[in-house]
Design goal:
Distance between the termini of chain A: 40 Å
Number of helices of chain A: 9
Oligomer: homodimer
Structural class of chain A: mainly alpha
Helix content of chain A: over 70%
Order of helices and strands of chain A: HHHHHHHHH
Chain lengths: ~180, ~180
Amino acid sequence: MVAALDLFQEQGYEKTTVIEIAERAGLTKSTFFRHFPDKREVLFGGDTMTARVIEGISAAPAAATPLEAVANALDAVGREAFTPARREFIARRRAVIAANPELREREALKGIGLTASMTGALERRGIPGLTACVAAELGALAWKIAYQRWSDTANGDEFSEVARRTLGELHAATSSC
Amino acid sequence: MVAALDLFQEQGYEKTTVIEIAERAGLTKSTFFRHFPDKREVLFGGDTMTARVIEGISAAPAAATPLEAVANALDAVGREAFTPARREFIARRRAVIAANPELREREALKGIGLTASMTGALERRGIPGLTACVAAELGALAWKIAYQRWSDTANGDEFSEVARRTLGELHAATSSC
């Protein structure tokens, strides 16, 4: 949410109150809490990303390999969240999160939740448990590396291209482990 | 720390104060804060685990593959932290963490830190960046699964055996991704 990010950058995450965020965004405090259970959550957008990722995996063709299904989920992330128009916002958000331990903790837990959702979606395609775990973990790692590469570079490739390339590199790296 | 875990189980994590933990453990409040920056940290034991893991990787034979070096680190974890004598404590600790979102967040961030430390230690062995990332991520996943398997079973195999077996299964699973 842009209002919150502006305030966190202007005066720091710690010093910003929920009331200030709500005011800047033109929301009442109770509307704010209906959308976000706490101040940290405002940068993580609830569970929309999880839904996109699960849809991306289940919509992959039946013959897709586990990593092809994961790549399909990363495409969905690029289409819905990490769009070119949002790159600057995402890069600012990344800097605010990196500067605050509480936000880094929330991001870490979100990452675990997303990985577990990918694992579950892969298992529902009939992929055995440990293979689903490994494919989801490689997908999460590709996501993380691609997010850094993509948000660092203005006018570079789109997120889904960076993510697919990264996933391919990680897959290749498994053979030298 | 046993005193803290007892209190968290008796009266809940939220309701337990640092003063109560310090009293139960026979520490002053200021001694407590010298060891642990906050209440959550009491269950995570600072950075000793990180040091053990880095040593385990760097002490692996020069000819070891990335995953053999990671297995060496998991041996160290089993020797120093997840010992048979501590299994019951570890299982109780796991239940307390699972029940509390704040503790789950701290655990998630610790996991990311440990994975990054493993990646760094592997890179210092001359392993290329992405391969080090993948090997560390497979090691972290083996750790997590082995921790569940091992702490669930009284009188089962030692942690390092469970962890090595799990790492082998994950490595095999990469070929069907």
